[in-house]
Amino acid sequence: MAARWIEKVTGDLGDKKRYKEYRSRITQLPDAYRHTALAIERYLMNIGPTGDGRSLIAMLHDLADLLEQSAAAGTPIRDLVGADPVDFVETFMENYDGGSWIRKERTRLADAIARAEKEEQP
């Protein structure tokens, strides 16, 4: 009973535990990969899934997997994220549910223009 009440106030305790596991994994990466993970995490926290902590946690764990594998293989950061890191993260996010508020607004804008275009035609 108390755990449910606490989770209503603080959020899902399981998600918090998984987030801490992710952060622990990130701290063990070489500096360049750790800094990359933190930069991507910050971006995801700001524009990532809205209202869906599970999608965000899944993204972060998959990001940790990707960075751990890349570090082990010696893949340079730029080879991993490409010339445009924003494009890399946007493409990465497309593989998960819980779209960002930016995606919702882009869809809303496109739909509004399509409706206006239909109204314009005789």
TrEMBL record:
SUPFAM superfamilies, A to Z: BH3980-like (SSF158560)
Please give the name of this protein. DUF1048 domain-containing protein
Top-level taxon of origin: Bacteria
- InterPro entries the record matches: UCP029876 (IPR008316)
What species is given as this protein's source?
A: Demequina muriae
